[in-house]
User: Fold this.
Amino acid sequence: GQSLEQPSEVTAVEGAIVQINCTYQTSGFYGLSWYQQHDGGAPTFLSYNALDGLEETGRFSSFLSRSDSYGYLLLQELQMKDSASYFCAVRGYQKVTFGTGTKLQVIP
Amino acid sequence: DTAVSQTPKYLVTQMGNDKSIKCEQNLGHDTMYWYKQDSKKFLKIMFSYNNKELIINETVPNRFSPKSPDKAHLNLHINSLELGDSAVYFCASSQDEAWGDIQYFGAGTRLSVL
Assistant:
């Protein structure tokens, strides 16, 4: 089976940097993805890692260590609009499984 | 043009009724999904179709029946609705199974069973 763990809530100050961690257990591994979901909205794809290392997309970066079954999403220069839930998702042999989500609150 | 569109956006109905949710994608993708998101925001896959063929069928009650008339459409029919079916249902698509890491979601259908 597949399981993922991520913190349930994180609070950070506007302009700061925040890191959201994700650890996973999976049968087979093809990739780790990150999605953003605002309250009342749909999940939106942010970033994807298939290989170890850091992927950067603007203010957002995602990191993967396959040997540690661990990844993180790094958000820089936080803005109020970044307040949302963030989900990691792992693609294993047969399907993609989503984590339970991390609710990020950005405060002034 | 909306890439993945679901209808209806809201659905309020009585227990025991039968209802359908429609989903269409205009991205030319081969793979489509149905997810259920409960009140705790847990996003759980229900079904996945690749080019009209069922590839994932999670432990979902058989009251739920997906239908894919073509690869651009994946509809969800629910029989004998129960209170526990109240949730947000999301349709999603990806280029194909190998690109399942990158999914595009519809806006969701908020189902309330009274």
Observations:
- DSSP finds no helices and eleven strands in chain B.
- Chain B touches chain A at residues 35, 40-45, 48, 56, 90, 92, 98, 100-108 (CB under 8 Å).
- The first strand of chain B starts at residue 4 and ends at 7.
